[in-house]
Design goal:
Order of helices and strands: HHHEEHHHHHH
Helix content: over 70%
Largest sheet: 2 strands, antiparallel
Radius of gyration: 22 Å
Number of helices: 9
Distance between the termini: 45 Å
Number of domains: 2
Shape: flat
Oligomer: single chain
């Protein structure tokens, strides 16, 4: 994060609001505007690496949606585009792609900027039990740890002569020597973490004193309040403001 980092609860609240708004806002205009806001926020204040992490996930989804709805969907064709694109299908693909893109980019930005120590201090400062906070930290950090472990296992197996290229059959055979050590390592790590937490008395009700509690500035409170207000307004519009079908 550039500048003063936000309170650890604020990015999580914003990502949750983005997920709710992506579902509640009317497509395609609502999700497209939401995706634009998320892109602007990440480009202006978020970790720039979130774009690099999200692009390999978002791009195939957009391509699949364009083919599924734009080429194979219903609606009037648009011959001017060179292919038999469907107008209604393109609108559907745009709305769904923007929804998923906003959720994935916001989640990736939270993962990139997540600070485990600050989050634990924030939970302790508010008197929250440490067990659930540790569970949140372990869940968020699981994917980066698994990626690093998978890369090390892949490098080790290549040194031993394992080939992961070639025919689909050869690639499927390579899954066992790659996936089994990854699974066993993840289980062993989870067991070690559980033993460590038990040895330190960190059960579900344990509480501790925060050494460096992160500051909850007015900016953080305003952002969380705006996110909650936006979700409540969108939910009210869906429940009360839409005309009956």
């Amino acid at each position: 994060m550039s500048g003063t980092p936000l309170h650890p609860y604020t990015p999580l609240a914003l990502a949750g609001a983005v997920t709710a708004l992506a579902v509640l806002l009317p497509a395609p205009a609502g999700p497209v505007v939401l995706l634009g806001l998320v892109i602007a926020a990440v480009a202006g204040a978020g970790p720039r690496g979130a774009f690099r992490d999200a692009a390999p996930v978002v791009a195939p989804i957009w391509l699949f949606l364009l083919i599924l709805h734009g080429l194979l969907g219903d609606g009037a064709p648009i011959p001017a585009l060179g292919l038999t694109w469907r107008a209604d299908g393109l609108r559907t693909a745009l709305g769904q792609g923007a929804r998923l893109g906003a959720i994935i980019l916001a989640s990736t930005a939270v993962l990139r900027g997540f600070r485990p120590a600050a989050f634990l201090d924030a939970a302790a400062a508010r008197g929250r039990p440490l067990g659930p906070a540790l569970l949140v930290v372990a869940t968020i950090e699981a994917i980066p740890r698994l990626r690093r472990r998978a890369a090390s296992i892949l490098a080790a197996q290549r040194v031993r002569g394992l080939s992961v290229a070639g025919s689909p059959v050869r690639r499927l055979r390579a899954l066992v020597p790659l996936g089994l050590p990854l699974l066993l390592g993840a289980i062993a790590e989870a067991d070690d973490r559980a033993l460590t937490c038990a040895a330190r008395g960190l059960d579900g009700t344990a509480r501790r004193t925060a050494l460096e509690p992160p500051a909850d500035r007015p900016t953080d409170r305003i952002l969380r309040a705006l996110a909650l207000a936006a979700v409540v307004a969108a939910l009210a519009w869906r429940l009360l403001g839409r005309p009956p079908a």
